Amino acid sequence: MSGGREYRIERAVGNNVILTVRVDTGKEYVLFGKGLGFEAKGLQTIPGDDPRIEKRYRLDDKEEAGRYRLLLEEIEPESVAIAERIVERIREDMGIPVSPKVYFALPSHIQFAVFRLHSGMEISNPFLEETKLAFPQEYAIAAEAARMIEEAFGIPIPEEEVGFLTFHVHSAAGELSAGQLARRTKLMAEMIALIEQEGEIAIPRRGSDYARLVMHLHHALDRLAEGKSATNPFADEIADKFPEMHRIAALAAEKMEKELGLPVGKNEIGFLAMHVHRLLEAYRQGDN
User: Fold this and answer.
1) What are the PRD domain coordinates in residue numbering (predicted)?
2) N or C: which end of the chain has fewer CB within 10 A?
């Protein structure tokens, strides 16, 4: 066994995670593996080629390492344990690897949510409907996670909190953090409110039209974030034929550009104008 490949065990974080220091470099690492934390208890080191290690995450600077250490000191074991059960459920249901950071972000979120609920603080989530529509699979897993938390802590979990858990479920399997997802969902809600205000309509939140609009905005934001562009051969024709709808779509696009710091092309605006046209036709006629 090479001493340079050994990790000194600093602390077990639940059953599947350990905080370590690589012996030869002194760099701090978080090691992940099923049962790794449980089996590491009582040991001083673990070899780098241990087959139980599924993933390793290096804490690149002292500030980051200190932040994780402080986080670990503040998180209760019950929050870590329930978070591990939820992460395992995410892995099983979605069939993809999870981000190492979820092992820290999720228990921290659970502990704070339980504290707020125990303290009688209201949890408000104005973007719940958008969250449920944009992330249906993640929401279903979050609902199961909420039941786990209820059983573990003996406290009812409101639907609003399920919405926030949904962000962590999606973040566990993606590149965006829960905070970024929350901001994106807020942006979608603000764009829809703008469309309603400018178009002088009200779209029923439980209807299929609202669901289609949310999904369109969700995919549009994904395309912009990934640097992809939509192809719309009718973009110029739509702008000429439906100037009011195009104006409203352009205002929504400006909001997107400001939030993302990315340009929104005429093709994307054209597609959104088509949705706006259909909505205005449906709901303005409904008022007559």
Assistant:
1) 74-179, 180-286
2) C
Dihedral Cα 191, 194, 198, 204, nearest 10 deg:
80
* Sheet with 28-32, side-by-side order of all strands: 45-47, 6-13, 17-22, 28-32, 55-59
β partners of residue 231: none
The domain spanning residue 37 has which CATH number?
2.30.24.10
Q: Is residue 66 part of a domain?
A: no
**DSSP letters of 209-226?**
HHHHHHHHHHHHHHHHHT
Could you say which DSSP state residue 74 is in? H
Tell me the residue range of the domain where 196 lies. 182-287
Q: Kindly write down the DSSP assignment for every residue of 48-64, as one continuous string.
A: TT-TT--EEEEE-SHHH
Under DSSP, is residue 10 helix (H, G, I), strand (E, B) or coil? Answer: strand
Rounded to two decimals, the pTM is: 0.76
Helix H or strand E encompassing 166: helix 159-173
Residue 15: how many CA atoms within 13 Å on its side-chain side? 11
Which tens digit of pLDDT belongs to each residue from 117-173? 998 998 999 999 999 999 999 999 999 999 999 999 999 999 999 999 999 999 887
In-domain check, residue 187 = yes
Cα–Cα distance for residue pair 257/190, rounded to 1 Å: 13
Which one of 132, 148, 175 terminates a domain? Answer: 175
